[in-house]
Amino acid sequence: MTATESEVFGSGTSSFGLEGNLTAQASAGVNPAATGADKVLAVFTLPSNSLDQAGRMISIAASGAYAANTNTKEVKIIVGAATAVVGSTIGAGGTTIADSGAVTTNGAGWQLSGSILKYGAPGSNTQIGSHTQGQNGSAGAALLTPSALTLNEGQPILIAVTGNATTTATDITLNAFTVRGSN
Hints:
Strands 3, 5, 8, 9, 10, 11 and 13 form a 7-stranded antiparallel beta sheet that branches. A 4-stranded antiparallel beta sheet has the order 4-12-6-7, with no helix packed on it. The chain has a single domain (35-182), classed as Jelly Rolls. Helices cover 0% and strands 53% of the residues. It has strands spanning 6-8, 15-17, 19-30, 39-46, 57-66, 73-81, 93-99, 109-118, 127-136, 139-140, 147-149, 157-165, 172-182. By secondary structure, the chain is mostly beta strands. The chain has no helices and 13 strands.
């Protein structure tokens, strides 16, 4: 299979590039290891040269639950940090492309999603990061403004989900994390 393969949509003449999961991580629950900082709940390393031509897109989604209390909680999707190790504080650098905002949601689910879209010439390190969806229980989260990214396309790129529980680490639980690639 090559990156240029495509399929026809239905019986029409429009075609689309192949796509699929690069990672799908599910668990009964991952909590931040401590409170008071953006702690990594899940991470995926996008291999170098994955964003090798304009139009390649990475879609990122994460979901979980908030504890039944009114403590402040915040979940983010951060790309391009120097380090990202589950249970540790996210490393320096990186750009937040999706953010739940600091919320006091009581005993409900949450979901965040974002995307990275490559534009420009191959190797130009030009991408747009977009916050595509945010939900905290029954309330929608405000979307972040799209970010002009300059991730090094010739190097592996870290994609992380973080949780910042200000009072108790078990206030945030991550249950699912997916990263999809589209040609």
